[in-house]
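Sequence and fold
=================
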Amino acid sequence: MKTIAAYPVCLYIAWLLLLSVILFAVMGRDKRLAQARRRRVSEASLFLLALVGGALGGVLGMQIFRHKTQHTKFVLGFPALALLQWGLAIWLLLPD
C-alpha cells in the first residue's frame, strides 16, 4: 500500500490546505486584536503566509471576518495568489 508521501500532488494539496487553515486562523486573530486595539499581526506576515500556500484561507478570512477588505493589495493579492496556487493543483491533477 502506498502512503500519501508517494503522491507529490497530494502533498502539495495537503500543504495548501494546512497553510490556508493557518492563515484563516491568523486573520481571525488579527481581527480580534484590531478590535481590542492591541498589537497586530504585520501585513508582511499575512502576505508571507499567503505566498507560501495559504492564500485561499486569506480570502476566506477576509470575507468571513470582514478583515482587510478595504486594502486593495489584499483584495487583489490574496485571490490572485489563490488562483495561482489552486490552478497549479488542478493542472497537476489533470491526466497527461
Notes: The chain has one domain: 7-93. The radius of gyration is 15 Å.
